[in-house]
Amino acid sequence: MIDDKYEPLTIQNLPKRLMAVRELTDQIGQNVDAWEVKEVGDGNLNLVFIVKSPSGAVIVKQALPYVRLVGDSWPLPLYRAYFEYHALTRQAARAEGTVPKIYYFNSDQALLVMEYLTPHKILREKLILGEKVENLATDVGQFCARTAFRGSDLSLDTAQVKNDRALFAGNVAIPAITEALVFTDPYFDANMNNHTAGLDVIVETIRNDVEMKARTQHFFRLYSAQQDTMCHGDLHSGSIMCTSTESKVIDPEFVTYGPFGFDLGMLFANYFMAFFSQIEHRGDNLEDYQNWILEVISETWSSFEKEFSDLWHTERTGMLYPKTMFEDQGHSSDKALISLLNDIWRNSLGFCGIEMHRRCLSLAHNADFERIDDLERRAPLEARNLMLGRDLILKSEKIRSTNDLLNLARKFNAEDFL
Ligand code: SR1
Ligand code: MG
Q: Could you report the per-residue pLDDT of 24-34, keeping only the tens digit for each?
């Protein structure tokens, strides 16, 4: 391609700058006059272009040297595209068919050319519109189990795990966003925080709950120090694209080695926020749709549990819980598996509660709530979400089943906290 010196693409200069990239022209042809370029990035960080021609379409994603949401006062290294590329190639190998195909990567330009997923839509938009997705829970639960298991010392050769831990340890600045915005800022009056008017009393309750804050730091320690596996790192409903029957996971630039339950917890939180905000987005079918969201949570866990257990029995070739110690001695490893799954479940609930907090208290809120213009109607829904988050952080050890979890969500959905 294209120059060595980094320069952000524009709709105007993209065709000229990328016309020599064969991997791209293989997909959409060489006649740049027929290319149609649109910038569609609606995330917080990057440029995203759809480039279409009569013969095909691709996505071109380019990192910007700053946080797009905030502007150039918050610089952000371009190297995140490199880690996203390495995460995507591993996810593609470990959970086949669940991520977009990569056609080309250019490190100098922090640029990826990848498959244009169509007619997929961002899952968050579908949840706001009340659209169901068949197989969502199974597909994403399996994605979580396969990437968790196959990126860990349960499966990989230890040299590979150590190499990957070292590789992804270089992704410093992006997980640092999570360290600040997710695990720290919600719990004090940090500079970039904002919350909906009317929530002050709840915010005060949360920020003054010393026991709960200590629990958040327990989970923060797990996030920073328990390097079980390669986590997606930002698995919210804006990182999943779906048709009515198929789901794909995108955008792993927050990739980091972290605890098994982290991605699941983030995901559950975003489903709970969709659940609590529904009343302002739905008409008649509110109950049916809210029940469906809760089913998705419960089935995602079942799908994760089933797939993780299958892999445990069929692909346990890493250094942890070796068959030489269990099956080869005529000893079942099932108790060890159950204990590990319980641990993952409990941790996922803690991460879930923290993500529910940060999306209402620090920077980068969710459209599920933000699209409710009437703040007097939004605040009580966010209050339910914040208070359930607090309970999950405090009681993660005591919530034993998905039934317990869903009953708790139903209970909080009927409460008036303001
Ligand atoms: C400044 S970036 C804010 C958020 O956007 C990303 O999607 C992550 O969730 C991050 O925390
Ligand atoms: Mg993202």
A: 999 999 999 99
CA–CA separation, 152 and 320 (whole Å): 9
Nearest CA to ligand 1 atom 5: 44
Domain boundary among 81, 115, 149: 115
Cβ neighbours for 93, distance < 8 A, ≥ 6 positions apart = none
Distance 42 CA to ligand 2 centre (A): 9
Q: Is residue 51 one of the residues assigned to a domain?
A: yes
CA distance 292 to 275: 9
Which residues constitute the domain of residue 41? 14-115
For residue 178, the ligand 1 atom closest to its alpha carbon is: 11
Same domain, 110 and 218: no
Phi/psi at 57 (5° precision): -155, 150
Q: Is residue 6 situated within a structural domain? A: no
CA 247-349-218 angle, 5° bins: 125
Atom of ligand 1 nearest to the CA of 67: 1
pTM value is 0.97
Which bound ligand lies closest to the C-alpha atom of 186? 1
Q: What is the pLDDT of residues 353-383, one digit of tens each?
A: 999 999 999 999 999 999 999 999 999 999 9
At 43 the pLDDT is 78
CATH number at residue 207: 3.90.1200.10
Q: Is 1 exposed, middle or buried (0-12, 13-18, 19+ CB in 10 A)?
A: middle
For atom 6 of ligand 1, the residue with the nearest CA is: 44
Ligand 1, residues at Cβ distance < 6 Å: 43-45, 67, 69, 177-178, 181, 234, 364
- CATH number of the domain enclosing 53: 3.30.200.20
> What total number of domains does the chain contain?
2
Cβ contact 258:179 at 8 Å: no
- Out of 91, 115, 139, a domain closes at 115
